[in-house]
Design goal:
Distance between the termini of chain B: 44 Å
Low-confidence stretches of chain A: none
Oligomer: heterodimer
Radius of gyration of chain B: 24 Å
Largest sheet of chain B: 5 strands, parallel
Mean pLDDT of chain B: 95
Number of strands of chain B: 19
Number of strands of chain A: 7
Structural class of chain B: alpha+beta
Structural class of chain A: alpha+beta
Strand order of the largest sheet of chain A: 2-1-5-3-4
Shape of chain B: globular
Largest sheet of chain A: 5 strands, mixed
Radius of gyration of chain A: 20 Å
Low-confidence stretches of chain B: none
Mean pLDDT of chain A: 96
Largest interface: A-B, 75 and 81 residues
Number of helices of chain B: 18
Helix content of chain A: 25-40%
Distance between the termini of chain A: 60 Å
Shape of chain A: elongated
Helix content of chain B: 25-40%
Chain lengths: 247, 648
């Protein structure tokens, strides 16, 4: 397959960016999108052009590193996959494909398609944990958790922290990311003790870091590679209200 | 200097060794802990759990990772589960059995005392993880669920769908975040260690490159913990993440830390086969699939031909024409034999011409029986996300046709040599998790990597490091302007300058691919003397070409992924060579290491306990120079050493 790839190039955080279009040929339809970029980079290096920087690591859809905005969609045209699990068979032969980094003021560009997502770590540091010291725990079977509750908690815990929800939201809100963590822990008896405080502190930090507000467009749910449901945002709101009342 | 290999295994009965060691270890008082600094490199299960636990104790911890966030570490990709000797299933499991299975699975090349300790702390790991809010799979009564893994006959594996590694890492990362918020841990994402700094023979810090600015930075401490994983990417194609590398371990090796059993690399039987030469990464399908999936190839070569021409589908081949070769060869364990055995059996069938895809390098993993027996819903609950993942990649549905799988490099049992305290041959330098060699011998059992990473990080290193640091709290803080730091930084700078100065024509990846071909061909699933010697020569030639003709674009003081890869490839050359030397020396077949010269008439691996029951610890002697071998004899005092038998 042959493609024209129109890619956002930006030397560093301070430089002005622009699009460059590169032509690439003989790509196998079974190649992944990132393999296509690898091949492009090999070609660029041989031609003396600076290769395109992009974040990637596991290439199995679980580490959350890859973060490309492809043809106007976070992680590209296939539903509920990360960029690394997107395959070239989803594109038309000869197509022009536009590739951009995540666009959000909370995720500044580092270079080309690489953005700085430390804001996510900071939100989690504000409360995305259960305060337990190593060695304090009782036997794992002492507190029973129903099968369905564990499964629902797991649905939320599947978040890979990629940032697609923020990139796709017209407000640049991190609400689904925050909700996934809050909800996953609030469902479990171990997480209930700090649930209200956790919700309050994480939302406060999210606001501080320049993420936008949630206006319930549900775009995040559609683009989440793990299909995390906006119903978790409702649970976050309940926890947040509880925190307000308890103040 | 064989006397450096003092394993410090405590005397006394096996079950009392860890208790005894803990009672001997000197404590550091809380006010003195505050004066001490520890560097942890790597944020996978080992690094994150160690840094969090050390932070809780009150030490000042600096933690480094090459990714944008600690949560990206490759532990995240582990699918199947984590073992623990809980005996929740009442199937007569015990600490002893977990210990025994691990020693046996490792083909009697791991230390008894270390492995026993691993089994002993395994139960506490599950308790800790549940308390952190990890949503493990549950039975309808609310109790924790278990499943089986290869090489064992009990159900002791805890799991969170097919994302157990992710959930455990998010737990450790959450604890790490708690400590970062508390100020005990400082996190340095997008920083890569490029050298170890030694002062008066002791590890005192690191030189790291800030991957965003490209600046070299110095960090001092009283102890350094390496938790940087394995070196599977030496093979270029592996199931490791793209950025996983063995560089920190190699830096320590070149600074004098011994490196143990490098030839023990695990080839995982259930990976998605290679699809073409543009590929750069292989995807693992969890071993848990072998609980319910049955592995087979056709009995008739004409069926193989038809499959390759897409004239028939696997599901059309009648039952009597299928060769369930693992069930046939190993009736007692069937599809659940250990990984090395399953991988070699797949290779044997494919070499005999029965490979089921165009490349001839694939076998079937079939769920049709399980779907009939358990029903769609139950199978979906157990493996749904793995089926989806397989279908996304291959565009074929495991619900309709069997998966196609083939072995690939997955994990490395070898690593930095450590004593019972997990201290390397350099005082003050520790290695934990996959980065060390200590617990898996010649072959690792499924669901034991997660167990070891967390055992080392949560329960071992926080205790043992105290013994060393109890002698250090009165010393002044490490001065990063000391001449040793200046010299180390200059050496790193020279290394980087040298790479840019070459300005050749070959890309880093193209040379890495060539290294991968050499490794897979000569240091892969079957090795012989001639091939290993060829590998050593070819790696030397490739390294020379690299220094003559590699092209590293851009400059140092910017985000530069090609420079990162070039520096790592230099280290992969060293590791590849070291693996070949070790494989050449070990003239026996053992675990993941199969020497063609050492096999039974039936083609099974033949171990040589008389001559090779030792840990091979290698000392660096200079670039391209043959390393020096030191031997740590392995003594089995508590179990009888047997030939591994999974047949009856």
């Amino acid at each position: 397959m042959n493609f024209n790839v129109k890619i956002w190039r930006q030397r560093n955080a301070k430089a002005k960016g622009h699009f460059e279009t590169y032509h690439i040929e003989d790509i196998e339809s079974d190649a992944s999108f990132l393999e296509m970029l690898d091949i492009l980079n090999e070609k660029l290096i041989r031609e003396g052009i600076d290769p395109v920087s992009f974040d990637h690591d596991c290439r199995e859809g679980i580490c959350g590193a890859c973060s490309l905005y492809i043809d106007g969609r976070a992680h590209g045209p296939d539903d509920h996959v990360t960029t690394c699990q997107l395959f070239m068979r989803h594109f038309k032969d000869g197509a022009t494909i536009t590739v951009e980094p995540w666009r959000s003021s909370a995720f500044p560009v580092i270079k080309d398609l690489v953005v700085d997502r430390r804001a996510y770590d900071k939100i989690l540091q504000a409360g995305g944990f259960i305060t337990v010291r190593t060695g304090s725990a009782q036997d794992a079977n002492n507190i029973l958790i129903s099968h369905d509750v564990a499964e629902e908690s797991m649905d939320a815990a599947a978040c890979i922290g990629c940032g697609a929800c923020v990139a796709t939201c017209k407000n640049g809100s991190a609400m689904l990311f925050v909700a996934a963590r809050v909800s996953s822990l609030a469902l479990l008896p171990q997480g209930k003790v700090e649930a209200a405080k956790r919700a309050r502190n994480m939302v406060k930090k999210m606001d501080e870091l320049g993420f936008g507000n949630c206006t319930n467009t549900r775009a995040c749910e559609l683009e989440c590679p793990k299909g995390i449901s906006v119903s978790h945002i409702a649970r976050l709101n309940r926890e947040f209200l509880k925190a307000k009342f308890s103040e | 200097m064989a006397d450096k290999l003092i394993s410090k295994i405590p005397d006394g009965p096996l079950a009392e060794k860890w208790t005894k060691r803990k009672s001997e270890i000197h404590l550091v008082s809380p006010n003195n802990k505050r004066k001490l600094e520890i560097i942890v490199v790597g944020t996978g299960l080992g690094g994150a759990s160690a840094a969090a636990s050390l932070g809780e104790l009150g030490y000042n911890v600096k933690i480094f990772c090459i990714s944008d966030s600690p949560r990206r570490a490759h532990s995240i990709a582990a699918q199947g589960g984590i073992n623990a000797a809980k005996n929740y299933q009442n199937d007569n499991d015990s600490v002893y059995r977990l210990f025994y299975d691990t020693i046996k699975g490792g083909d009697y090349r791991a230390r008894e005392a270390n492995v026993y300790r691993l089994a002993e702390v395994s139960a506490a790991i599950i308790d800790q993880c549940v308390a952190q809010g990890i949503p493990f799979a549950r039975e309808y009564g609310g109790y924790l669920a278990n499943r089986s893994f290869g090489g064992v006959q009990v159900s002791r594996t805890f799991y969170a769908r097919g994302q157990t590694g992710q959930q455990l890492l998010l737990g450790a990362y959450a604890s790490l975040n708690k400590e970062i918020a508390a100020g005990t841990v400082t996190s340095y994402p997008r920083h890569e260690m490029l050298d170890l700094v030694i002062i008066n023979g002791e590890a005192k810090g690191i030189i790291a490159r800030n991957l965003v600015t490209g600046q070299l930075e110095r960090f001092g401490a009283q102890a350094v913990v390496i938790a940087t994983g394995g070196y599977g990417n030496t093979y270029f194609l592996s199931t490791n993440a793209m950025n996983s590398n063995g560089s920190a371990a190699m830096q320590c090796w070149r600074k004098g830390a011994y490196f143990a059993n490098p030839c023990f690399a695990q080839i995982h039987p259930t990976c998605i086969p290679v699809h073409g030469d543009q590929q750069c990464k292989l995807t693992l399908m969890s071993e848990s699939l072998r609980n319910d999936g049955r592995i087979w190839v056709p009995k008739k070569l004409e069926d193989v031909e038809k499959l390759r021409k897409h004239e028939i589908k696997a599901s059309q081949i009648p039952e009597e024409d299928r060769d369930y070769y693992l069930e046939r060869r190993y009736p007692a364990f069937g599809n659940l034999v250990p990984r090395d055995v399953a991988s070699r059996a797949a290779k044997e069938r494919c070499d005999a011409g029965f490979g089921v895809n165009e490349t001839g390098k694939a076998v079937f993993l079939d769920f049709s029986d399980a779907i009939r027996r358990l029903g769609h819903q139950k199978v979906a609950e157990r493996y749904g996300n793995l089926f989806e993942m397989y279908e996304k990649i291959t565009a074929s549905s495991p619900w309709e046709e069997p998966m196609m799988i083939y072995p690939a490099i997955h994990y490395t049992m070898g690593g930095v040599w450590v004593d019972y305290d997990l201290q390397t041959t350099i005082p003050g330098l520790y290695a934990i998790g996959e980065a060390n060699f200590s617990d898996h011998g010649g072959n690792r059992l499924g669901a034991s990597a997660l167990m070891q990473g967390l055992a080392d990080g949560y329960f071992v290193i926080p205790v043992t490091i105290g013994d060393y640091l109890s002698k250090k709290f009165a010393e002044p803080k490490t001065d990063i302007n000391a001449p040793e730091f200046v010299v180390a930084e200059k050496a790193v700078q020279a290394r980087i300058d040298k790479l840019f100065a070459i300005n050749g024509t070959e890309t880093v990846d193209s040379l890495h691919k060539e290294l991968g071909h050499i490794m897979w061909e000569y240091v892969g699933m079957a090795r012989d003397e001639e091939g290993l010697k060829t590998a050593i020569t070819k790696i030397k030639e490739l390294r020379e070409r690299f220094y003559k003709d590699v092209k590293v674009p851009g400059n140092q003081f910017e985000f530069n992924q090609e420079l990162e890869k070039a520096l790592r490839l230099e280290d992969f050359f060293d590791i590849g060579e070291l693996m070949a030397y070790d494989a050449l020396n070990r003239k026996e077949s053992c675990g993941g290491h199969f020497r063609v010269e050492s096999q039974t008439e039936e083609g099974e691996a033949k171990r040589d306990d008389k001559n090779f029951m030792y840990v091979a610890a290698w000392e660096y002697k200079g670039e391209g120079v043959e390393p020096e071998l030191h031997k740590e004899p392995l003594k089995y005092e508590f179990i009888e050493v047997k030939t591994r038998n999974y047949k009856d």
